Amino acid sequence: MVMTTHEEKMRTVRFRVAATPHIVLNSEICRNQCSVHACVYVCPANLFVPLDDGGILFNYEQCFECGTCYIACNQEGAIDWSYPDGGYGVTFRES
Amino acid sequence: MTAPPAKEQFDVIIVGAGPAGSAAALLSARAGLKVMLLERGEYPGAKNVSGAVFYGSAILNELIPNWWEHAPVERHICRRDIAFMSPTTSVALDFHCVGDGYGTAPYNGFTVLRPKFDRWLAAQAEAAGAFVLTSAVVDDVLRENGRIVGVRVRREQGEIYGNVVIACDGVNSFLAKKAGLQRTFHPHELSLGVKEVVGLDPAIIQDRFRLNDNDGIAFEYLGAITEDVHGGAFLYTNRDSLSLGVIGQISSLVERRKRPYELLERFKAHPAVAPLVRGSKLREYSAHLIPESGWAMKPKLYTDGMLVAGDAAGFCLAAGLYLEGMNYAMQSGLAAAETAIAACARGNFSARTLAAYQKHLKQRHVSTDFRAYRHAPSFVNGPRLQNLYPEMVACGMEQLFRVDGAPKRKILPLAYRMARQFEMKPGQLFRDAYQVARAYLW
Ligand SMILES: Cc1cc2nc3c(=O)[nH]c(=O)nc-3n(C[C@H](O)[C@H](O)[C@H](O)COP(=O)(O)OP(=O)(O)OC[C@H]3O[C@@H](n4cnc5c(N)ncnc54)[C@H](O)[C@@H]3O)c2cc1C
Ligand code: SF4
Ligand code: SF4
């Protein structure tokens, strides 16, 4: 299994999911003010899913906490980004 | 300076147990200071990703003699390979040295797995007397009378006080921003790295890469390997696995609408790479940012009661030939510790006293190296070096070696034809040659 799908990749990563999300989107801004949707392409965990109405569906649970999305996003206030509580979130074992 | 508050007081609070933080904690604790090392991960290294070749062996050897005999290391790197790629060809420079310092102690570099290595390094700081608190997210700095006097951990009564705070919280460093020392970043200043560790039998690794015992090789790839995205790729040998990954500038990923993990798959499928990874099995996928711009994104490095080190200070040399961050993280962490130790001896933690950090950074060759290579990142991330030249070289070689019955061309006419085919103007060529020279030669 050299070539792997994104789902197969994500299955190798351990996450300890916190009860509350550490990243929250302001979906109004995503839907009404953003045409680039940069987050959809850059997120290495593929957590931003474009919706038919122009909005974005986001789930924080399998996040690498890398920061790429808030840096790529060109709309002020669209992403409220912080780290999950201590000990939660991604836990790498080999990388 | 005002008297320290009556609560529990540390000499040094270090935020982040990566190589910068753990090195700073180790040195400070050995100097007899009361040290608190805070890490948000379940264990040090749980959040951290590198290639990873650790080029700081000689530095660490000063602190822990023959450290590699005790630490979780994979292979010592005695071969380095730099390849220029087109979609179907590669032209590589292969450097192999088993001589002094490469094949012998203290060794030039080791592949490591960060979750294991970072955990070990933090344990060394703990053994030297530092308090290490994991699962602790620092949310802000504490201020009194305008000066930083500690940090706030996200928990009940999370205030921790200390004379000097050293921010070693990595590339996103919210602490440096909270302290007003760093600005917000632009997407062209950072790159995203996506990586896989794939398992492979050690005997196959040794045969396939022509390595003896614990020898290792580091491949860096430039050019069309990331298609039209500015970036590169790497492949390093571990003991019984390979670490491989693709690095792409954020702005360029956005512009080209490329998904990083798809570039990673194409990298593995490249005809020059596929035979190297054949038969391997994915163990872990990961992703992390790199502060590519180095000198250009350096924050203000100190203020009253606080210093910034490692990736948090932009001390990561990511410029084509080099991908070195762990060694500079360690060096700058040590320089910050030396500054804190001297400040504690004087009992003064003002910005003026902490300005000595600049001197220590120079003595440890951090600021001097980054100044010397300050032109490299922007040039390396330019479109011509990223894609055009590597592809020109690869195509040129393809034609140089082609035997198809047509008359053989000598190198100069061939180069001329290449330049025309890729629409290069001589003026541009000279300007770029000057830029390369300025970035790497003097
Ligand atoms: C794909 C990739 C490949 C690389 N390859 C190499 C290589 O081969 N060789 C090399 O030398 N360098 C490499 N680098 C660069 C190297 O990883 C970094 O330069 C290095 O890790 C920086 O060390 P640091 O201690 O400054 O930061 P980090 O290693 O990032 O450590 C920061 C620590 O702070 C913790 N932290 C952050 N915020 C908080 C907070 N608020 N509260 C508590 N804790 C916090 C984090 O959990 C982390 O443990 C690579 C980087 C990437 C992404
Ligand atoms: S998060 Fe930012 S980039 Fe993504 S859709 Fe919303 S506004 Fe656009
Ligand atoms: S932090 Fe990284 S992994 Fe998490 S959502 Fe943002 S881009 Fe995706």
Automatic annotation (TrEMBL), chain A:
<keyword id="KW-0411">Iron-sulfur</keyword>
<comment type="function">
    <text>Could be a 3Fe-4S cluster-containing protein.</text>
</comment>
<keyword id="KW-0249">Electron transport</keyword>
<keyword id="KW-0813">Transport</keyword>
<keyword id="KW-0408">Iron</keyword>
<dbReference type="GO" id="GO:0051536">
    <property type="term" value="F:iron-sulfur cluster binding"/>
</dbReference>
<protein>
    <recommendedName>
        <fullName>Ferredoxin-like protein</fullName>
    </recommendedName>
</protein>
<feature type="domain" description="4Fe-4S ferredoxin-type">
    <location>
        <begin position="21"/>
        <end position="53"/>
    </location>
</feature>
<feature type="domain" description="4Fe-4S ferredoxin-type">
    <location>
        <begin position="54"/>
        <end position="84"/>
    </location>
</feature>
<keyword id="KW-0479">Metal-binding</keyword>
<dbReference type="Pfam" id="PF13187">
    <property type="entry name" value="Fer4_9"/>
</dbReference>
<dbReference type="InterPro" id="IPR012206">
    <property type="entry name" value="Fd_FixX"/>
</dbReference>
<dbReference type="InterPro" id="IPR017896">
    <property type="entry name" value="4Fe4S_Fe-S-bd"/>
</dbReference>
<dbReference type="GO" id="GO:0005506">
    <property type="term" value="F:iron ion binding"/>
</dbReference>
Automatic annotation (TrEMBL), chain B:
<dbReference type="Pfam" id="PF12831">
    <property type="entry name" value="FAD_oxidored"/>
</dbReference>
<protein>
    <recommendedName>
        <fullName>Protein FixC</fullName>
    </recommendedName>
</protein>
<dbReference type="InterPro" id="IPR059103">
    <property type="entry name" value="FixC-like_C"/>
</dbReference>
<comment type="similarity">
    <text>Belongs to the ETF-QO/FixC family.</text>
</comment>
<keyword id="KW-0560">Oxidoreductase</keyword>
<feature type="domain" description="FixC-like C-terminal">
    <location>
        <begin position="381"/>
        <end position="440"/>
    </location>
</feature>
<dbReference type="InterPro" id="IPR036188">
    <property type="entry name" value="FAD/NAD-bd_sf"/>
</dbReference>
<dbReference type="GO" id="GO:0016491">
    <property type="term" value="F:oxidoreductase activity"/>
</dbReference>
<dbReference type="Pfam" id="PF26311">
    <property type="entry name" value="ETF-QO_FixC_C"/>
</dbReference>
<dbReference type="GO" id="GO:0071949">
    <property type="term" value="F:FAD binding"/>
</dbReference>
<dbReference type="InterPro" id="IPR039651">
    <property type="entry name" value="FixC-like"/>
</dbReference>
<comment type="function">
    <text>Part of an electron transfer system.</text>
</comment>
<keyword id="KW-0285">Flavoprotein</keyword>
<keyword id="KW-0274">FAD</keyword>
